[in-house]
Amino acid sequence: IGIFCSILTIGCASFPGKELPTYTYENITAPAAKLTVSYDVKALTLGRDSASAAKIMQEEIEKVLKAGPLFAQVVPGVGTGEYQYSFTLRNEGNVGLAAASGFISGLTLTIIPAYAKDEYILTVDVKKKNQVLKTYTYRDHMDSWIQLFLIFLTPSHWPGTISKEVVDNMLMNFLHDFSRDLSSGVLVASQGQ
Fold this sequence. Notes:
- This protein is an alpha/beta fold.
- About 35% of the residues lie in helices and about 35% in strands.
- Strands 1, 2, 3, 4, 5, 6 and 7 form a 7-stranded mixed beta sheet that branches.
């Protein structure tokens, strides 16, 4: 019963790395005419394709891109928009450290905390007519702790919620940089090369 009770009271709390600036839609320059874009998504966890992570990533792309001032239409698939975005999200966390930390924490019934770090790398290839105009890369992370006394933080710091927050901020950084490059003519100049 003691082990069962301790499992019920274990807390897990995650915290965003905040390595990138935080932008809002007000920081994004809207073009004269809204764009139609298409996109494809790939998600890798520790070097392997992850269909579940790709599905979550697609949901976040839809949410963030459609709410912004840049696009008239955002369509999944290849080649149906003025621009094609190829999103690749990689999670390169340290499994060995997480496993060792979890093992030690488990032996103490989580009195000693367990720690895991998810390292996210988002790469976006912006293409027009199958030509890559520019590649954008963003890095951020999420720290997760499991410990008996974190039960009170769990509702507000759930790993699934925090990981989406990190990804959304990476997408906002992309929108900010893309809109800046679009309005400054960088993408038009690279198209002529």
